[in-house]
Amino acid sequence: MRTKRVLLVVVALALAGAGMTAFYLTANLPRTTVGCSSYSTDFLIIASNQGFNDSVGHGAPANVWPILCVHQGDTVNIVIKNTDSFSHGFNIDNYYNSQIVSVGPGQTLDVSFVADKAGTFTVYCSIFCEVHLQMQGGELVVTS
């Protein structure tokens, strides 16, 4: 029984260390921002084993993806659909990050807010998974 507890503690520490390492590496990567060529207020984010809207195929985390461009004062509506077989998180700095949000396999989450502060805000997954690093570099760009 004691061996089992020790093994559980070791596994938990390893997972925590991996998560902290992934966070540190992601926060310190140089990133390429494409910028806004069009604006919208309604967005669909597909969370899958390819990241958010195929962020893996877009070169994340070195390349910013997805990019959501809105104007200050817009009401932003985002539908997050998880097509994967495991859960993903969804957060946006300053706008949708007051808690860890989990979108389970096959679930959909509707997010709506007013983009009242201009700037660039990170869109990211808050749950560690196999494509976690590629789901840390999206951006919400709010222009005045």
Structure description:
By secondary structure, the protein is an alpha+beta fold. The chain has a single domain (31-143), classed as Cupredoxins -  blue copper proteins (Immunoglobulin-like). The chain has one helix and ten strands. Strand 1 and strand 2 (51-52) form a beta hairpin. The longest helix has 26 residues, at 2-27.
**Envelope shape:** globular
Instruction: Give the strand order, joined by hyphens, for the main sheet.
Output: 2-1-4-8
Low-confidence stretches: 6-32
Would you tell me the structural class of the helices and strands?
alpha+beta
Number of helical elements:
1
Approximately how much beta-strand content do the residues carry? 25-35%
- SSE order: HEEEEEEEEEE
- Mean pLDDT equals 81
Distance between the termini: 60 Å
User: What's the CATH architecture name?
Assistant: Sandwich
Largest sheet: 4 strands, mixed
Corresponding CATH superfamily: Cupredoxins -  blue copper proteins
The name of the CATH topology is Immunoglobulin-like
Helix content: 10-25%
- For the CA atoms, what is the radius of gyration? 16 Å
Characteristic terms for this protein:
144 residues, alpha+beta, four-stranded mixed β-sheet, Immunoglobulin-like, single chain
What would you say about this model in short?
The chain is of the alpha+beta class.
Write the layout of secondary structure elements.
Blueprint: H1 2-27, E1 42-48, E2 51-52, E3 67-71, E4 75-82, E5 88-89, E6 91-92, E7 102-103, E8 108-114, E9 119-124, E10 138-143
Parallel strand pairs: 1-4, 3-10
Antiparallel strand pairs: 1-2, 4-8, 5-7, 6-9, 9-10
